[in-house]
Amino acid sequence: xxxxxxxxxxxxxxxxxxxxxxxxxxxxxxxxxxxxxxxxxxxxxxxxxxxxxxxxxxxxxxxxxxxxxxxxxxxxxxxxxxxxxxxxxxxxxxxxxxxxxxxxxxxxxxxxxxxxxxxxxxxxxxxxxxxxxxxxxxxxxxxxxxxxxxxxxxxxxxxxxxxxxxxxxxxxxxxxxxxxxxxxxxxxxx
Length: 190
Hints:
Number of helices: 9
CATH superfamily of the largest domain: CBS-domain
Shape: flat
CATH architecture of the largest domain: Roll
Largest sheet: 3 strands, mixed
Helix content: 25-40%
């Protein structure tokens, strides 16, 4: 299946990149300033890796704060990255995103990064692809059932709310049963 729109037509050409030896603290500052979730690591135009918010958060939980300045982007970055050519169709890009489980793809020609494509870029240009992306598992709405259930209960004025379960102590969506707030798991065990 082809959509008829090429990656090169919608990719971001002015993507944000840093050198592989940039500290992760500086990378985090750049991400915050530019309001982005990932950085392309390149040297002389050659792709060396990709650093995401998740990578930085992982480092923050594993390293002492005083050591974070010494951690270089390349140490945490993903080095095995799925890439795409600018001549590829958007449908192929969606397939690659699904397979790699990432919502972004560096656009590369002869080893040189020339752009960056995100799922957001695709949906901004062609919102109709939302259904294709969703049906192909490129992304899914997290906790969709719970959110819909909460919305419906608020609409109906139900006895549900988020809090700590009085039975097991877990923070969850709770239902008021016999004047106690109980989570779904504890409710089933009753």
